[in-house]
Amino acid sequence: MTNTAYPHLLQPLDLGFTTLKNRVMMGSMHTGLEDRFYNYGKLAAFYRERAAGGVGLIVTGGISPNRQGWLLPMGGTLNFLGDVPNHRRVTRAVHEEGGKILLQILHAGRYGYQPFVVSASATKSPISPFKPRALTERGIEATIRAYARCAKLAKMAGYDGVEVMGSEGYLLNQFLCARVNTRSDQWGGPIENRMRLALEVVRRIRDTVGSDFIIMYRHSVLDLVEGGNTWDEVVTVARALEQAGVTILNTGYGWHEARVPTIVTSVPRAAFAGVAGRLRKEVGIPVVASNRINMPHEAETLLARGDADMVSMARPFLADAAFVAKAASGRVDEINTCIGCNQACLDHTFANRRASCLVNPRACHETELVYVKTNTPRRIAVVGAGPAGLSAATVAAERGHQVTLFEASHRIGGQFNVAMQIPGKEEFAETIRYFGRKLETTGVQVALNRRVTREELLAQGFDEVIVATGVRMRKPAIPGIEHPMVLSYLEVLRDKVQVGKRVAIIGAGGIGFDTGEFLLHDPAHPLPQPVSTWTGEWGVDLNVSTPGGLVQPVPAHPYRQLWLLQRKTTRPGAGLGKTSGWVHRAALSRGGVRMMAGVQYDRIDDAGLHITVGGKQQVLEVDNVVICAGQESLDELTAAEAGNGPRFHKIGGAALAAELDAKRAIREGAELAARL
Ligand code: FAD
Ligand code: NAP
Ligand code: SF4
Known about the structure:
single chain; eight-stranded parallel barrel; five-stranded parallel sheet; 27 strands; globular; binds NADP nicotinamide-adenine-dinucleotide phosphate
């Protein structure tokens, strides 16, 4: 597996007692499968595909060393012999494919969403309703023993090592920082005391497992919360961990309660790699860079620059199990890139649902969504090359069907061509690139600029027709809606018509928020945002010259004055993604956008937009009103019965416009094509 394009990435890493075949690590992700014993077959299949895809090292989702450490009630735990056989299924699958795997030991501390939570001090976290009990000295000793027992069982189960989770604000991080640790005994006070628990955990694990077992420690190098550690403290802890027996130092950025985004799509690629680079100069063991690294080029560049010895990518392995194999064989254009949307992974995890991936619905469903070669190839027409149609066409062709894809416009991608115009959503272009290449490799015949009719489809004698024609915009019945100041979001985002400086946006769904971000952005500033601009806007100091690396944010000057309106009385943006919605709300708030709920639209005329809110009439004196009021299905093909002709199937927006997103569109396309 060698490719001169990525010499650093594909170089083995010799750890003395064992060698990793390359510098790529699949970082820990909670899939939801690890919490129930009956899902371990599915979990093993998930990891097997990633190991077969060539990744050098895999880290499992977080497994708790005891009940107090659960993230959720009855969360995945490894604390007695009876748990070992389940884990053996996972390690066997990975080893059979030539991979290596670590078990992540995660004690959630006060982040646990369950009543047994403990922490350094009895300080409730803002993200769990359960107030923790401060661990007693005996409780601390029992916790250390639990970590060591968990590592011992992991070794028995065949793992190649463990990762001790010490970042993102979990228990060990809580002890490390004065933000939570207000103890006055030997476990609190100066950093030498606050780091005692982390060090004892590592020493006790090392004593238990011996020297030929990887201990990775995920160290919080940038807490991004008030009361976080200083750079000197970060380095002191790292050096002490090395002395205590850690083999590899992974890096972590931001507590879960931090108000700075660290992984959503608007965070620039590899934004934090330089911090790992600074740490690497302070220790003698391999250091791993992490967060928003999603393509081989960024990974190779940061390794070549000396920022790290390994690169951790987590979500990119949900998006594409064969990431490394494709990079190694010169097929980087075939990589299905993680676009950082969080919609099917973290948003699912936080809703206690099984994780998957928006761009790859097979993720965590490897045994259920299977693309079997067909014995009865058929002629299939797919109409519409948006996410739904692209997904259906490529899966059907991969299975051996003869597929023709008709698209009315001059390019594939559907609404993703519009989504990628939004500042911070540039990654959406990667999905179009991926599908474009996949159409070539699977041999789909693509007919662009072809708005097909039902008659044409019937005349061509297809066996199956998949209607993926998407949606049309909803035009609300507001008096004056035909006024020249009224624009649709497509005119603004796709056609780039001129927009005035004062704008009212009707509709505060995902597209209303996106349109807001587009209109706030000064077109003179480059996109994607350079790291320095992004850190300035969010108040991040990558030199960590302040505790936690927080400084005063310097918001960009808003390019326009905006009003974002909705009829519902709920908080605008309440329906956005759980793990990304707050970032969009914060971005618009920083831009001074006035968000109004409970709005009644009275009329639009030369004076502006007339509204009534809370019984009071007012006029928003704006230059333009932009309509983002949702969509309706576009289906002009399946209106009448098919008779003896082909079978018609509807997917994506064509099937149902309500609550449509690309996750559903791509999944429906893949599921249908897997059945045909
Ligand atoms: P579409 O993408 O609408 O594709 C339909 C295609 O069919 C079009 O290319 C059209 O030209 C073609 N077509 C129509 N009629 C015919 C015909 N008769 N013959 C041939 N071709 C035809 N979703 C998310 O999940 N996350 C996001 O963050 C997100 N952000 C968005 C931001 C913006 C600004 C926009 C506009 C959308 C966003 N979406 C997002 C929504 C997402 O893009 C849609 O849910 C998704 O594209 C729907 O896929 P689809 O294939 O059903 O339809
Ligand atoms: P949406 O989320 O359904 O929002 C539509 C908005 O229009 C709502 O604010 C609604 O609020 C308003 N509206 C509906 N009917 C109206 C009417 N007759 N008159 C005036 N206002 C009306 O749809 P969208 O924003 O168009 O997004 C489409 C899909 O793309 C969504 O399902 C979303 O998941 C996806 N998307 C996701 C993201 C993301 O970041 N995850 C981003 C963009 C798009 P009221 O009814 O209260 O007025
Ligand atoms: Fe990446 Fe989105 Fe897939 Fe999650 S759902 S892995 S963020 S593309």
